[in-house]
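JOB MANIFEST
job_type = single_chain_structure
chain_count = 1
residues = 299
[input]
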Amino acid sequence: DLTNVVLDQYPELAAGIKGISEETTTGVLRLYEREKNGTLPMPAINVNDSVTKSKFDNKYGCRESCVDAIRRATDVMMAGKVAVVAGFGDVGKGSAESLRNAGCRVIVSEIDPICALQAAMEGFEVKKMLDAVAEADIVVTATGNKDIVTGAHFEAMKDKVIVCNIGHFDNEIDVAWLNTNHGETKDTIKPQVDMYTVNGKDIILLAEGRLVNLGCATGHPSFVMSASFTNQTIAQIELWNNADNYKNSVYTLPKHLDEKVARLHLAKIGVEIDELSQEQAEYIGVEVQGPFKGEAYRY
């Protein structure tokens, strides 16, 4: 949002900006759109796709904060409930694990066949969203897209279902539809917890459809965010010192810096790692000090 406001509404400020570092999935998508359209006036570093961001903040952060937020907001008993997670990217993976670890039976919905197969092979049931929500006690959207929960989904839901979003803006859940069609039934139970009545059934909406782990809790634990912010710091230093080396395009941090971020966090949690011998390094075609994986490695 900040990037779009500055570049679209205050373009005169662009000349004084050396570069952009972005660590959200949606924000990175918008940067690539600008690069494609020729409207990116300075270099940008995509922090989101650093492994030590997306595979940690998105997955392990949501694994901690998803259930934490729902519990703080509702005090609901999670065990035995049916939870639907829309999307099985890194955020969805962490959220689904969070709910399963709390005792929920988790159903995943997906549009990507690879993510759907991953979910199935992790032991999750995979269904179309409209079919899944009819069974749900808890619905969590984690896609980064819009119109995931629409009027048709609300009308198919059970009484007292809890609906929340951990993926994107409040258009992931069509809150506008709720307010337009059933706004007169809205009952604010407490801040960030609203109940609507749809065709005689109560729908409990958390955080007004915005990010539930921020609206109803305190976000991810600080340790996992430290990895993300370390990436941001490294990106900002690089742009400040070497902006002239970059074109007006979107870049990712090199692998050796990604590994450095991970290495900096090991001692805090008591991790010790082995080192390659020179012969071992030569055998697999890497340097003794890394990087240890090629750019195509998916982790």
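[summary]
Residues 60-216 form a domain with the Rossmann fold fold (CATH 3.40.50.720).
The CA atoms of residues 18 and 244 lie 9 Å apart.
exit_status = 0
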